[in-house]
Design goal:
The protein has helices at residues 9-16, 27-49, 53-60, 67-72, 79-98, 102-119, 126-140, 145-174, 183-194, 197-200, 205-223, 240-246, 248-262, 273-290, 292-311, 315-333, 346-369, 375-381, 387-400, 403-414. The N and C termini lie far apart (86 Å). Helix 3 (53-60) runs antiparallel to helix 19 (387-400) and helix 12 (240-246) crosses helix 13. It is 70% helix and 0% strand. It has 427 residues and is mostly helical. The protein has 2 domains: 9-180 and 312-398, no CATH class; 183-292, no CATH class.
């Protein structure tokens, strides 16, 4: 089990639900139910922490209508279940930072988030991100830096402990202190694309043969039309930085060719998968050290793709943004935008920014630093991004279209008029 490329936990659940015997019929409804429950729990936790119902609704309403839910809910894949567990973990974090039932909330946080990243190891970056979120949430509640120490330490222990236990068991058995032995292989697609002939001499000797093989095979596949070559730049030169910054989708399209058609062939006959993954991890680190400018170009280009898919190709974000723009224009045209209707929920916005920002950041980091941002990764990362336009949309509607919010402004205007100065016919 500990030597597997994937953790077995989701597979166990699928088998518990009948697996292939019933055609996986129970998997989609179970995932739907868990996602729905997680959404409701998060909605309650955001309000319990101190945010308004409007903010809580803005955070949770995008979830059931997100690309991730609509595209992957019926798949036999850990994406939806692991995401649901992260949402429950965030709810526990909100409760813990509210200051009530601290120990039960910490246990819930550790169990839910630990189960999430053990089921989907790409969620591992929540380990450093969640304690940072805890600091911000505690400070928003008025806690001093000294008062933050104990709860933040509790959060850090809670989110790290499942990793430490499982990775420790794997280390004792396999010599690899990781959740799975897959990160090295996954990141080698990036390093394989970054290679150029001049890079080979910069690498340690133990990596040069593999690098030379990858460059040779990559060029051969491109010449045969089996993968896309690096495009020519304006100087008629094949430039990786130019492609990464301006045409990153070409690299994204070629990533799997490098992984499965080339890098897979560099595994030794007597080499275990764990040893192979560890050697590829060392190889990628060596390539990044040899070509830091290329790696920087990769991160920038990958970020461009990530942001584009997370916003423009995000259905809930796009619909909410267009609705906000349309409603705001309507409010202006109808003359309902007044100073009296102003005001901003700065506390709500701060809470929303911590929740959405922390969740998105934890998903963004592995998507661009270790591999390319595939559509599934980005859809999961962008799950909560529609919160911002939705919160603004609710604000525009509440301030400028609800009668209860327009009448005080009208009364305020007439209260400044001295009726005794008006003629009797106008009184």
């Amino acid at each position: 089990m500990l030597y597997m490329q994937r953790t077995p936990f989701y597979g166990w659940l699928v088998e518990l639900l009948g697996g292939e015997a019933n055609g996986f019929a129970l998997v989609p409804p179970t995932q739907f139910l868990v996602l729905g429950m997680a959404t409701l729990i998060l909605f309650g936790a955001v309000q319990y922490y101190g945010a308004s119902a409007r903010a809580a609704l803005a955070v949770t309403l995008p979830i059931p209508f997100s690309n991730s839910a609509l595209l992957f809910l019926n798949d036999v894949h850990p994406e939806i279940l692991a995401t649901s567990l992260v949402l429950v973990g965030l709810a526990c974090l909100m409760a813990l930072c509210r200051g009530a039932a601290t120990l039960p909330a910490a246990v819930g946080l550790g169990l839910s988030l630990g189960a999430a990243y053990l089921m989907k190891p790409a969620f591992i970056m929540f380990i450093p991100v969640v304690p940072s979120m805890a600091i911000l949430l505690l400070r928003l509640r008025g806690a001093s830096w000294r008062q933050c120490c104990l709860p933040v330490s509790l959060v850090a222990v809670a989110v790290t402990l499942p990793f430490a236990i499982y990775a420790g068991l794997r280390y004792a058995e396999t010599g690899s202190f990781q959740v799975v032995s897959y990160g090295g292989f996954q990141s080698s697609g990036m390093s394989g694309l970054m290679l150029r002939p001049e890079t080979i001499a910069k690498l340690p000797r133990e990596h040069r043969d593999r690098a030379a093989f990858i460059v040779e095979q990559r060029d051969a596949l491109a010449a045969q039309g089996q993968m896309l070559p690096i495009p020519l730049n304006s100087q008629n030169v094949r430039s990786f930085p130019s492609a990464a910054l301006g045409y990153f989708d070409v690299l994204a399209r070629s990533n799997d060719n490098v992984l499965y058609d080339i890098v897979s062939g560099t595994r030794g006959r007597s080499e275990s998968w764990v040893e192979f993954d560890q050697s590829l991890q060392a190889f990628t680190i060596a390539v990044v050290k040899a070509e830091p400018a290329y790696y920087a170009a990769w991160v920038i280009g990958a970020t461009t793709r990530f942001v584009g898919l997370a916003t423009v190709a995000n259905a809930t974000f796009a619909v909410a943004s267009f609705a906000l723009a349309g409603l705001f224009c309507l409010a202006v045209l109808c003359g309902r935008v007044t100073k009296a209707a102003g005001g901003a929920g700065s506390r709500d916005l701060a809470i929303v920014a911590v929740i959405v920002g922390g969740y998105t950041l934890a998903n963004y980091l592995p998507s661009v630093l270790m591999t390319f941002p595939a559509r599934r990764y980005v859809d999961t990362a962008a799950l909560l991004l529609a919160t911002f336009p939705l919160y603004a949309l609710f604000g525009v509607w509440g301030r400028w279209f609800q009668p209860s919010h327009r009448e005080p402004a009208l009364k305020s205007h007439w209260s400044q008029v001295d009726l005794s100065e008006l003629p009797p016919s106008a009184r």
